[in-house]
């Protein structure tokens, strides 16, 4: 005797195929970050690739690596944080529940995609492969450990920023490495501001981020120190005088909405970065 639909919750529902599950898992990860304006390395790397005058084929390959790496690391972050996201009212529960329902498929997807990316980049360029290894290593360390450790969360984001930009520079280029160290400083600054923005929810869930350890006034002091570091590095190491404009965030009001503060910081950093990229493209870069 066949079970009735009332006794069979899955009756009448079409089972999703594995390819469709994989697509949705990855698409949810990148769409969420694009919506929150967090996938900054896509734009940053595109500008680096143009400024360094990569050939069209190399530009396309390295941009593809950047995109796949972004999707993969964000998905890894969501996979590891699935229970935390489900407990947080501000997170996308539908996305987290879907990952939890397909945890085996999600894990297999991470393994297969990571292996494929490592093998293909190794065949293409040892330097690009190194950047992929560094990015995958830091996302596991950051999500599992550093994100809940004062100061290590900021250091982890510095390494994260450098590793994500690595595929967009000429192979093991000292000039390129000097440039992307600035991106690391930018990323560390953004992390401080993001943690200040998430202060209440992080404290509620007993996390130990840097702002929770040193307080919000101390976190703003740390952010300002990073602005000064970014400006000094740009002027004295990269030789780009427009780096003085990176001191502008020192004068931002800390009483405004943190989303507004964060966007203003992005604008300042973005303007200075674009000027450096334009100067590099035309051969005027001093660094």
Task: Give a short synopsis of this structure.
By secondary structure, the protein is mostly helical.
Keywords:
Farnesyl Diphosphate Synthase, 287 residues, mainly alpha, 12 helices
Question: Can you give a write-up of this model?
Answer:
The chain is an all-alpha fold. 72% of the residues lie in helices and 0% in strands. It has 12 helices and no strands. α1 crosses α3. The protein starts with 17 loop residues before the first helix and ends in a 6-residue tail after the last helix.
Counting structural domains, the number is: 1
What's the count of strands?
Answer: 0
CATH topology value: Farnesyl Diphosphate Synthase
Q: Characterize the overall form.
A: globular
Q: Which class in CATH terms?
A: Mainly Alpha
Binned, the helix content reads over 70%
Cα distance spanning the termini: 78 Å
Question: What structural category do the secondary elements indicate?
Answer: mainly alpha
- SSE order: HHHHHHHHHHHH
- Judging by the overall fold, what is the CATH architecture? Orthogonal Bundle
Average pLDDT metric? 91
Major beta sheet summary = none
Number of contiguous helices:
12
